[in-house]
Design a protein that fits this description.
- The complex is a heterodimer of chains A (113) and B (115).
- With 113 residues, chain A is mostly beta strands.
- Chain A has no helices and 11 strands.
- In chain B, strands 2, 5, 6, 10, 11 and 12 form a 6-stranded mixed β-sheet that branches. A 4-stranded antiparallel β-sheet of chain B has the order 3-9-8-7, with no helix packed on it. A two-stranded antiparallel sheet of chain B has the order 1-4.
- Helix content of chain B is 0%, strand content 51%.
- Chain B is built from no helices and 12 strands.
- Chain B has 115 residues and is mainly β.
- The chains are: A mainly beta (113), B mainly beta (115).
- Chains A and B meet through strand 4, strand 5, strand 9 and strand 10 of A and strand 6 and strand 11 of B.
Amino acid sequence: EPEVTQTPSHQVTQMGQEVILRCVPISNHLYFYWYRQILGQKVEFLVSFYNNEISEKSEIFDDQFSVERPDGSNFTLKIRSTKLEDSAMYFCASSMGPDARLFFGSGTQLSVL
Amino acid sequence: AQSVAQPEDQVNVAEGNPLTVKCTYSVSGNPYLFWYVQYPNRGLQFLLKYITGDNLVKGSYGFEAEFNKSQTSFHLKKPSALVSDSALYFCAVTARLYGNNRLAFGKGNQVVVIP
């Protein structure tokens, strides 16, 4: 089965630093997503991306967050100035269409110290 | 707002016994409902979804789920559990309006199948 790849698997950073989480979606997919899960809490929707622009975003996705598809294969999530409460597992996902099944990556565990 | 409740943190079941993982949801309008499974160090994997039609949905690995509109539930079931079914199970909902966007997940249920 095709896979979504996320790197790194673990990222440790200092509060206030910028981080970029990377994802390689499945090659023929057109819709891309970021979700996160704070330890012990629910998996939360952050943002969806289609046709090189954000199609939906949640209240969590404030000005500190941005997404980009810099080339034909990567999909990145940037947090400009990390806060302690940004510590979470971040999942990237992709799908062929707006109603098609999502394929998730194995996640990046972000720890902000 | 949309939300999912998975009331039990952990479900223990003996191998060969029926497995049920409970999920109730809240959404404005018609729901899309999903079950995902997560094995250690892996991403969430799609099991099944309900969009419309037959209330009983069959999915991967022998799992099925029943949509009950009056009880706003979408419980996951398997007639005979295997040790390899031990994993974390997530229920998710979104309003059909959003398609795949804005999935609201539950906290997840750890299923432990005892040999």
